Amino acid sequence: MSDEGMTGLSEVTAQEDLVVQVALRAGRIMIENGSEITRVEDTMTRIAKNAGVADSKLFVMITGIMMSITGKQNAQIEPVKKRTFDLEKISAVNDLSRQFAAHTIDLVTFESALIQLEKHPKYFPFWLQLIGAAMVSGPLELVFRQSLTNFPMSCVIGAAGWAAFYWLNRWVKVRFLSEFAAAILIGLLAIVAIRFNLGTSVDDIIIGGIMPLVPGVPITNSVRDTLAGNLVSGPARGVEALMSAAAIGFGIALVLRIM
Amino acid sequence: MQLIVMLVSTYIATVAFSILINIPRHALNLAGIVGTFGFFIYWLYMYFIGGYVIANLLGAVVIGIASMAAARYKKMPMILFNIPSIVPLVPGGQAYQMVKNFALGNTELGTKFMFEVIMIAGAIAFGFILAETVNRVSVRIPTKWAKRWLRENRRNPKL
User: Fold this and answer.
1) Are residues A256 and B103, on separate chains, in Cβ contact within 8 Å?
2) Which stretches of chain A score pLDDT less than 70?
3) Which residue on chain A is closest to B136 by alpha carbon?
């Protein structure tokens, strides 16, 4: 009799541990890839609720997450170490959470799907990213400056800047340094292009070329987080955006000053 | 003619930026449409009335509301449509002019462009705040009315 009670109790505890583990993993994936804090809190609470844990407590920050089940002894911590922008993963976690809410997958499948998501990320191929960078630079140069003569060089230099950023990001792992180096490359290439009469205005080419590096994700998230009342994580995102903008700005300023 | 070129370039640029931040394939087109729509509102205000601060504010409000509608339609996170759409409104040109003038020692001109950048960034942020308010209120009002109507008419026979 008492034996049965004991096994029942440990099963419940194991189930609750699994719930917290899955929720923490989902939350960490979302923050790592550039989600807002509110969305993470919402998703984690929903996962716990749909798994049968009605009341859970959360403390989500941009550098780590804590979660505990109300009335239980232990909380679990999950640090967030790296930070990239990959909205595909956020959308995938969102879809999985919706499927879990509709009971088409169970908790174990959910966790293995999350592990798969981390192991095999789905990126656009590199050549498509290069074309993407070119198609950000050229058209935005047209929108901002309306000069058709500088359009081709903008495309080429924007793609070159993105390629430099992409490769450096793999080696250096510090986003600001890669942005700084990419900005220097963009500035140098623009000046060289003018020397060889491939364009008419350094300004237009550089403005187009730096557009792929614009920190769109931190800007949007800092506004949304601050607005939702996350007065620590929102401004932290804002600092991230400012650092990126300053890195690009210093890179360009350095080139303009020297050449 | 110029407007068509601009709108097409905005669409291309928004979709291309979505590729760079790895947005799921079946959200790309809608993100481009939201971005183009926001820029169109910005352009309309700039062309007919003028004044870049209000124009950016209106553009950001429209992007915020439209991306919420897109998110509800596609059942996907709102930031998928939000982030690429503001890229055409980002004050890249002014920021570059600011950096250039500071680097070359033209502090006065640099300060002028710095104020423009700060004003535009503030306008976009405030536009998002307004859009968020509209999004929340537009959810609340129908449910509130529906609840009140249900409470007042609960003893009535069903319509």
Assistant:
1) yes
2) 1-9
3) A228
